[in-house]
Amino acid sequence: MELGNYSGLAEYVVDANQALNFRFVGSAEDMENEKLVFQPEMVHQIYGDNENIFGYKDLKIDLMMSRGTLRTFIQYSFSSKVDPAKTDGVTPDDVVGPLLKILAPGSATENKEEFVKQLSSAKETGFRPIGDLVHSFSSDDKTYEVYSCTESTPGFRSYHDRLQVWIMFYIDAASYIDIDDDNWKFFLLYQKRESSGEGCNYSICGYITVYEYYAYGRQTNKKRPRISQMLILPQYQRQGLGAALLNTLYRNYLNDSSVVDITVEDPSDNFIRLRDFVDTQNCLKNPAFSKENVMNGFTDSLAESAAKELKLCRKQARRIYEIVRLHYTPLSDTAAYKSYRVDVKRRLNAPYQREQSQLEKLRRALKPEEFAAAMVNITDREQRLELLEKQFTELEAHYKKILEKVAATV
Is 265 a catalytic site residue? Predict the structure, then answer.
């Protein structure tokens, strides 16, 4: 619809990111507590690419989820909405329907009394995390527990159906996973509160999903776990909980001789930063990444140690080696810093070298005019050097930020 055809309709278009308010609640009082509110990072997977809702003024949508069983209550309000009789039959957008489509079937209600009753039920107040307790820790005087689950864990399937809705608001291009496959493993992080006499004592903070792929090779019965999704809910971010959860996953696999290494599927920029931080912390404590070893260059021995002792795949081991080597390289030492730059650029330039090798084969196989036509869109040497310098500069800046963060935690 072209809003320009209707006088004043532009004011009936609202940004769904601003209209949506989330809360995790444990009591009727929590439902009115504005301090518990947090908002989505994206809604294009729910309300469309423009992330707008048409037809309302001052639209406010509340989506509240119970802390324990993850049951949902939805309500919305507005000051006015468009009148189809005055807009050639154009009607307001559906507000609740798109949300119900991504929520687990039967998990949501628009009846406030029904939801309040649910919050005080024994099933809600007596909720305990599903699965096996694999780690507990304290941070800032708060207690946290991590539980592992699989598809066969009693009650987990329906719980996961209610939990996974959050990825739609915080992970771009997210999709629900089919947990019918028993190769999936899940690690769920909860905050545990002291008993207050009312409400659920556990709050979900986030979770991480892993698919245990078979590791093809000479050895049998080997696996290569791949991290698929990780989410720390907004109200629990920037508290070190992501690092704690990732380290818990690592510890779960460290003593498993069947695990070759751990990989990651299409990581986001945020996860890359988290992973680099955690892996750098761990490698700086590991003798294999001592200054003496690292300054001698990246070797097969170092890669093997990283896989055996830390379950790092070769690609990530190389990346962390570069971060650790930067840590040990005095920038004031011109020769040492130049050696570092050359080492990193050599790795960054490897794809270009392979491309050049393929082009040489192509040159020998084609006629001169055919080869010239094929080279039209190929980056020349000068362009490649400029790109290489840009890649190195951006990577070095990232590495320095990781090292600064690691230093701040010592």
Answer: yes
